[in-house]
Amino acid sequence: MNISDKESRDQILRGTFYSAGVGATTGYLVAYIKNKPRFHFTIFTGINCGIFGLTFFSIRDACLSFQKSKNPDYGLLNSQTREIDELISSTFSGGLTGGFLSVLNRGRGAALPGFIIFSTICGAGQICYSTIYNYRQTIILRSSNQDKKLSNTSQNIPDDNTKETNIQNKKKKHSFLDWLAAIKWSPVTKLSEEQYRELMKVKEEQLEKEKYANKKLD
User: Fold this and answer.
1) Which of 30, 44, 49, 183 has its CA 20 to 30 A from that of 167?
2) What pLDDT sits at residue 92?
3) Which spans are transmembrane here (predicted)?
């Protein structure tokens, strides 16, 4: 990935836009609290943060591209080194950008403090971003796994029912009544479902006939 790629350009421009927006908002709030000229603080802080964002994300993208280009030499995938690559790139880019801008604003003596402060801020920000990103991915995986489990259980419901019916049938086969029905001289007989329905139908017809006969007698 290099800066000429559309994806890289979009990331750099997006990061610059967000940095300028955050800077402008911060400048407006500071001016409002301190009762300073709001327009001046908003524009000035927004431009400074936009310059910082443009420099930071450009250097970060170049560092990431360099680190990713070395992964095939060690037999590593980009996904395996993504977190550490992003942390190193963000820390180094933040320190380099902060030190450079500190030199422009305050002189050479501010280079080292600017490098340390901004590298710490950018490194901590990258850790927070990676933590939130990983947590989001974990939630997505959990929800997808739950959906798969629900679909699997819904598909396995007939199988479970058949297993339960088979177990019940086995229990019935080994029950005492089944043993009695298997004996030839036993008065107990085993009826199938169709035989049971026919028997109940005959009994219902007999009851209807008895009711009809009783009505005639009355």
Assistant:
1) 183
2) 94
3) 12-33, 39-59
